[in-house]
Amino acid sequence: MTDATPSPRDASRASLARKVLRGAAYLGIAQYATLGIGLIKTPILARLVRPEIHGAVALAVSWVSFLNIFRMELREVVISDPEGHPARLTTQYVIEVITTLVGVVLGVAAYQIVPGMASSQVWTAIFALLGVRVIFALTSTPLYILHRDVRQEIITRLTLLGAVLSLLASAALAWSGYPLTSLLVDAALPTVVLGVGAWLAVGWRPARAWDASVARDVWSFATTMWTGSIFSKISFEFDDWLVGKLRGTEALGFYSKAYTLAKMPMDVFAGVIGGIALSVYAQSYAAGQDVFNRVYRLTTWLLMRVVAWSSIVMLAAAEEIVLIMLGPNWRPVPLLVRVMFVYVLGRPLFQNNAQFLIASRHERRYRASQLIQAVALLVLGPPAVYFWGGVGASIAVSVMMLLGFGLSQWHVSRQVDVPLIRLYLLPLTLTALLTPVLYAMGGALGAGVFVSLLVKGALGTLLFGGITYLAERRTAHEVYDLVVDNLLRGGEEDQTA
Question: From the CB of residue 485, how many other CB atoms can be counted at a distance below 10 Å?
Fold first, then answer.
C-alpha cells in the first residue's frame, strides 16, 4: 500500500467525518432559517396573544407531559443501532405507539373524573397536544432513521416547510381573533409536517420479523430510558406546573418565556452540535476508542465555546432582546433569565454528556444524573416558588442543573481521557468577566435597544473570539482543518478524520 492510498480505517474515519460535517451544515441551515422565521413569528404572537393565553398553553404542555408518563420515546434505540435490525425497529415502533395511546386514555379518564383540574382553555390545549403526540409516535421510526443515517438534507427541507406553514397559519389565526388556536397550530404543524414527510421519504414499514432476544434488549433499553424520562419530566416540566398552580397563568407566561430564552444557547446557537451529537457519538463509538475520544474532545470544546459566547450576549442584553422580540408587556422576563444563568450554561453541556453516555450504552449512569436533578427540584421547587414565584423557580432549576451536570461529567470522565480544565476553564472565566462589562456598557451608551444589542453582540463576539483564538489557537486550527478537509473541499479520499 502506498503512502497516497488511505488504509480502510482511515477511509472509514474520513467517510464518517464528511457525513457528520455535511449533516451539520444542513442542520445549521435548518436551525438558523428557523431562527429567522421565529424572529418574525415570536413578536407577532407575543403582541397579538395575551400572556395568560401563553401561560394556559404552557400549563397544558405540563399536564400532557404527566399524562404521558407511560410514554416511551425511543429515538436512542434506533440511533444507537447503525445496522438497523428489522426486529429491533419494529419492536421500538410498537412500544412507542402503544405507550403514547395510553396517554390519550388517561387524558379522557382525567377529563371525566376530575374536569376541574384545568380550565376549558387548558383542556382544549391538552387534547390538541395529545393528538400531536400520537401523530409523532405514528411517524417516529422513519424520522429516527433519518437522524441515525445523518440524512439532514431531508430533515432540513421538512423543518423549513413546517416552520413556514406554522408562521403563516399561526399569524393568520391570531390576527383573525383565535389566539388559543394560533398557539396550538404553531405547536402542531412543524411536528406533523416533519413526521409525515419523514415517512414518505424513508418508506419504512413495520416488519413481521420478531426476535425474542432483540425484543428483551429493546425492552430493557426502553425501560431504562423511560424511568429516566420520568425524572426528566420532573426536572424540566415540574417547575412550570408549580408556577402555574401556585402563582397563576400570567406568572407562568412570564416564566415560560424566560425559560425559552434560557434555552437559546442550546436550541439556537449550539443547536447544530446538539442535534447531531447522538448520531456522531454512536457512529464514532463503533469506529473505536481513539475516534470516540477525539470526537468527544472536539465536540465538547466547540460546544462549550459556542454556549459561553451566546450566553454572554444573551445575559448582558436580556432587556434589549425581550423588548425587541416580545415587547414592553414582558418586562419581568430579563430578571428571570439572569437568575437561571447556571441553567443557561449547564443545559447544553448536560445534554452533550447524556448523548455520550447513551451512545456508549451507559444509559443507567445518565439516569442516575436525572434522578439527582429530579430529587433536587422536588425538594427545592415548592418552597422556592411559594415564597419567590418565578425567581424562586429560576434559582431551583439552576441548582438542579449544576448537580446533574456535575454527576454526568464524572461518569463521562470515567470513559474518556480528556482534560476538563482545558475544556471548561477559559470559557467560564470569560463568561464571568465579560457579562457584567457588556451589561454596564448598555447603560453607558444611552442608545436605543437595537443599537445597544448590536454593540453588545459585536463587542462580545470580538472579545470572546479574539481571546479564545489567542489562548487556544492549536485546537481552533484543528477544528477548522477538520471542517475544511471534510466539508469545503468536497471530500477527497486521502483526507482523514
Answer: 19
Segment 420-429 long-range contacts (CB within 8 Å, at least 24 positions apart) = 422/301, 423/297, 423/300, 423/301, 423/304, 424/304, 426/467, 426/468, 426/471, 426/472, 427/304, 427/305, 427/307, 427/308, 427/309, 427/468, 428/308, 428/345
pLDDT tens-digit map of 9-30: 555 555 555 666 666 667 677 7
The cell numbers describing 79, all together, are: 440511533
* Cβ(161)–Cβ(33) below 8 Å: no
Burial of 212 (0-12, 13-18, 19+ CB in 10 A): exposed
Report the candidate in 303, 61, 26 with the shortest Cα–Cα distance to residue 159: 26
Range 211-239 average pLDDT: 76
Q: What pLDDT, on the 0 to 100 scale, is given for residue 17?
A: 59
d(CA 101, CA 315): 41
Contacts 24+ apart (CB under 8 A), 326-334: 326/42, 326/43, 326/46, 326/257, 327/43, 327/46, 327/47, 329/46, 329/51, 330/46, 330/51, 330/254, 330/257, 332/254, 332/258, 332/390, 333/254, 333/257, 333/258, 333/261, 334/258
Residue 364 has pLDDT above 60, yes or no: yes
Mean pLDDT (whole number) for 412-428: 86
CB of 234 within 8 A of CB of 404? no
**Nearest-angstrom CA–CA distance, 455 and 26:** 30
Report the interhelical angle of 8-48 vs 473-483 (nearest 10°): 100
pTM for this one?
A: 0.66
